[in-house]
TrEMBL record:
PROSITE patterns cross-referenced by the UniProt entry: AMIDASES (PS00571)
InterPro entries associated with the record: Amidase, Amidase_CS, Amidase_dom, AS_sf
Name by which UniProt lists this protein: Amidase
Residue ranges of domain Amidase in the record: 47-438
Amino acid sequence: MISDFTVLRSALLQGRTTVAAALAANQERARSHACRHAYTYLEDSLAAPLALHRPLSGVAVSVKALFDVQGWVTHAGSKVLREQAPAISDALAVARLRAAGAAIVGQTHMVEFAFSGVGTNPHDPTPAALDGLWGHDPGEVYVPGGSSSGAAVSVASGSAWVGLGSDTGGSIRIPAALNGLVGFKSTASRVPLQGTLPLSTTLDTACAITRSVRDTITAHEILAARRITRSPAPLPAWRLAVPRDVMLDDLAPAVAHGFARSLHLLRQAGADIVEIDLPELRELPALNAHGTFSAAESFAWHRDLLALHAADYDPRVRQRIEAGGRMSAADYLHLQRNRQDWMARIDRRIAGFDALLSPTTPITAPLLSAVAPATGDDPALDARRDAAFFTANGLLLRNTSVVNMLDGCALNIPCHLPGELPMGLMLWHGAERDDTLLALGLLAENCLLGNAVRQGAQPACPLSLPD
């Protein structure tokens, strides 16, 4: 059984399979029921890279539809951009993956213009989390999380080993958590955004979803064009903190139980974990009271398009973008100044810790039927779904968005057991702590995965080694 592409790469180098066979297996998965709707464009054939020694040769990668891929239309999940000219060159992140030997499988479903954490889009059918996976009833269709919805389902279903996406308020970590995968939001400046359609120029981060932390390390090193500094320090050598404020509020019982279990397992393994007060987190609503970076910066990009095509936007997304038009220049500059002060105060409070631990999301994946896009057939039902959508969206983004406002980095690690809906443990800190988080992530993943395996866990989509 293949757990991640590190195992696949070993099999390729040892001659136990071939690149062609590996990529054919990914394409077969891409056309499977579990992967349906994950792609808005799928390549007919995958060219085998020539140099097997490259780190991603034989590794299938999916690309979120806001990254330029030469010859493809960068539609960002929208209706209004579908008729524009195809990209003439790859985004820098895509080019780096190709140079490392990756085979690009296709373009993945996403929330329109990346502006939601739920994963729905009225222009394209929603890919379903857990559909036939993890032993759950295929009739129970859950949202995949967003905005990198197709990226997560492409990896969970086995059609791709790496799902390239973006994270502005949690758009990598949320779908990773809801699909039982690893998602890493690096410090934003680590990966260039050249050739990427923006949501928020202040908060956007190009990053990826994978099946394991060791795969995440390889993917990050390629995307950021840097080698991480690896630490041999064991788990007891690190100092970890759990902030009591905000991050633990209103947890669903299953998430509260899963988080407490994760802390218990880490402590059993020798981790030094203390609870701390972090009252600055309660200041975020006031900080954003006059508008957010995402609203203001997206409105600046979309203003002309909205004037011509407002009716073609997802109403839920348009509502959030148009809010940016009501934010004054003074409000925007005030937010910038206050953010810097807020970041400095948090950095001082958490400086003595190697990482902080929180639930990635306070809830598990909602049922798609509860938050589906409006159809117009039943206004009362549409209104209930809209209300449920915005409630779920706020909850899903609440914990993860803290890290984006901090200009920090964060890693989601699965922490559920068999029979439970997927949920995530988030390791996080401020800017430039990427290497520390990844080193800790390897240790934490080993601890939590060992317990899950003892309880009978299986990968999201068991993959056999292709002949």
